[in-house]
Amino acid sequence: MKILTTSQMRQLEESCAQTGLTTDMLMENAGKAVAEEVRRILGDISQRQILLLIGPGNNGGDGLVAARHLHDWGAKVIIYLYGQRPARDPKLKPIRERRITRVEAPKDEDLDKLGGFLTSADAVIDALFGTGTARPFGGLLMMVLDKVRRARKKRPGLRIIALDLPSGLNADTGAVDPGCLYADNTITLAFPKPGLFKFPGAERVGEITVADIGMPADLAEKAASEYIPSEWVKSVLPERPPQANKGTFGRVLVVAGSINYIGAAYLACSGALRVGAGLVTLATATRLQSILASKLTEVTYLPLPESRPGLLSPDAARLIFRQFDQYNVLLLGCGLGQSEPVIRVIRTILLGKSKPPLPSLVLDADALNTLANTPGWWNLLTTDAILTPHPGEMARLTGVTAEEVQADRLGIAKKMAVEWHKTIVLKGAYTVIAAPDGQTKISHIANPGLASAGTGDVLTGAIAGLVAQGLSLFDAAACGVYLHGMAGEMVKARLGDAGMIATDLLPELPQVIKQLKENQDTPITE
Fold first, then answer.
1. What pLDDT is recorded for position 133?
2. To pair with 221 at 20 to 30 A between CA atoms, which of 4, 38, 314, 343?
3. At a CB cut-off of 8 Å and minimum separation 6, what does 71 contact?
4. Which residue, 200, 222, 244, sits at the end of a domain?
């Protein structure tokens, strides 16, 4: 599903008008789709009180259509009008005919009526401003939003739902007005917008749902960025033929682990196995094999010489080279450390002049840190590879600060993927996947439970396991990000987002795949 900027959405609306799909028709479709999603979010809406904050433009018009449907389905609807609607507004006429309660904000002295509504409302729908707002909020509007904010603080169960995006959030940049509300749900229309995935705005959108309003998807094909929908993931998942053997599903060589980071090797190997890789071999320091063997029983091992206990010797590179023709993918970097002998091993494998042809590469952690300390490394590592940096690692690779990376995650990932000719997975909330040809995808997941040690190793392993099964580097990266994120959502639903640990994700990975194949509902709706 494409991600469209404000200007691209305007162009799409113009294209729709040329095909006979008018603004009024889109508004009717949008309002009904929003109402249906609100009903899904709230459950039985019969006699539940829903307060809609209605603005003067199209966003407000969408809200009025949603209000009409919610009323007809049994909800107790209240319309709170901010700003002047057109004199003969066709969307207000059905509201009047149904005698739905409506109050004009300028006539609500001291906002007393709004305060009364908020004491009993089950949900507030923010339909004040959509993608068109640019001016800073102030005056009456700021007072209305502050009233809602304070009511939510007193009543945490009051649900805030944003229509298209929270008012005051810039649809392109993610910048926010101080008055912008923190929504529990954002029902974005037709296509996601970039600002939903950029901070600080991303903190305020809650769960994102994309509502189909009838815009033909083929009109948006020129957009480069995409949201990762479940149907796409299902379409690229590797086939599992009944006559298969372990070789059918690929072979992964994992070079990982050191005396201080033993768990990284376990998590990376397990991630590859849990997405269906046929054979995983762990190449690790000899002393670590006995420690891992009792816990990691399904892998084979390649014990490597040590420079000191638990740390690789430079001689390890020669043994690793001999294995390349037996494996589809090499995962390198998880928990290797940054001792000088280890750095020499990594450089020899990736950048050495006499190295044999490399299998497909998935690089993480200390492999990335080694590259970051090698000027012009991308000119030496000429093959495509998947790089999986977190913001700090990306900052070191690019020579900017982590704050600069976070301020333009999509832009930086896309630029560097093209410049380095590598596939990049920029981890974090709303993980970005960027390909050398400029194509990008964005994950819908922002789960604080995944911000714990080891979850990145699971992700890297899952991506390597998908590459081994024949997916292209970009498809494997995006599919792995989706499966990993959804596994996190499953754990979050069961345990919450505090105390989630990396091993919790492992049994959920095959469950996500199973649900996709069986067309079961997943926590993301599109």
1. 67
2. 38
3. 77, 98, 100
4. 222
Angle at 453 between CA 452 and CA 456, to 5 degrees: 95
Whether the link from the prior residue into 200 is cis, omega within 30° of 0, is yes
How large is the average pLDDT for residues 453-461?
A: 97
> Which residues fall within 8 angstroms of residue 388, CB to CB, at 6 or more apart?
362, 363, 364, 368, 425, 427, 456, 459, 460, 463, 477
In a domain, 70, yes or no: yes
Residue 122 gets which letter from DSSP? Answer: S
Are 171 and 267 within one domain?
no
Token output for 68: 């009409």
Q: Is the Cβ–Cβ distance between 417 and 460 less than 8 Å? A: no
- Structure tokens belonging to residue 21: 């799909």
Residue 423 and residue 464: Cα distance in Å, rounded?
13
C-alpha triplet 194, 195, 196: angle, nearest 5°: 90
Domain of residue 412 covers 233-517
47: left (phi over 0), alpha (psi -120 to 50) or beta: left
Cα separation of 455 and 431, whole Å? 13
DSSP classification of residue 124: E
Whole-prediction pTM: 0.85
